[in-house]
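Attaching the record inline, Q. Sequence:
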Amino acid sequence: MDLQIVLTKLFANAGSVGIEGVFQFVFGPDQAFWSHVGDTSTTAAGRHARADVIISVTPQDFAGIMTGQANVEELFASGRLKIDGNMGLATLLPQIIDSAQQGGAKAEKVDMNKRYPTPPRFSERVSAAQPVQRIVERRKRADLSLAQFRDHYLPGGIPVVICDALHDWPLFKLSREESLVHFAELQGITRHGDYVKKTFSTERDFRSTSMAEFIASLDQPAEKRPDGSPPAYMGNNILPAQLLEQIRYPGYFDTSLFIAPRIWIGPKGTLTPLHRDDTDNLFAQVWGQKSFILAAPHHREALGTWSTAPQGGLDGCDFNPDAPDYQRFPAARNVPFLRVMLQAGDMLFLPEGWFHQVESVTTSLSVNFWVDSARGW
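Structure, as predicted:
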């Protein structure tokens, strides 16, 4: 594999999605290449004096990434791929790789820190046709058959909490101290500063952190933050391959439909503001409690929804249900918000398109499964 040619092709169109910076790859003591990404991209051998991101990985693992046999996030989590520098820029690497592997043509440049109008979704028509939902049902896993789930909750896009859902998860049965053995040598990315106001922005303060050390730190008193920013949060990290045997995939969908599960770890007070995803979501609470505030998809306009790309993408909201500004968003008065408290052992089915705001009520560990259910939503 000619690494310089591969990197040239990898970053050829990266600038079209608003990515700018210098990526330095170190494959060994005497083997390094850098790529400067902007309106045009340049790749050369050697070490760049002002690299924004430094990625250290073996040529074999890099070849696995580029041939689809290895996942860059899994390699990072297991410690086989090291990242230094601007972690916010580094988190875009999987997106760059996916785009290159799909052979996408050069597209119109997108400003990833700009807010674009949000296009409507099919799920909005589905939710608008349903009776107004005032509460989220709680169903015991043993009493919720697969047929009931697929005949009622799935096609109607109806959220439901499945209780006692994790009784067969080894991870759920472990104490926090016992679990640290399984997290040893693993690493994740933590969010710092005011990541709530910078949701979906490339300007967020991301840092590489040992998972075991971060979990151990959760027992320490939280630092006082004069600016009012939330505590550090290890959010939306891929679940390392070493931990897959400690969980169980939910039986409501075929396993082939699941996107790689994600892990979320943080102390009391971590917050993800109101937004919506583009796939169904099964959210499992392993430790502690998390509160969810939900709103149905068809309330898009009332909530001041915006997207990260012209054709839609990640959808955030300017409306805050915990501090409502009805002068700016008068239509939000008519939105029935549903409040859900997830206890340890609960799993929330959150259908695609449902807006949700999430806060850790206590120290919390969660695992979620996004599902490409291909329902045309």
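Residues 3-101 form a domain with the Nonspecific Lipid-transfer Protein; Chain A fold (CATH 3.30.1050.10). DSSP finds ten helices and 20 strands in the chain.

More tomorrow.
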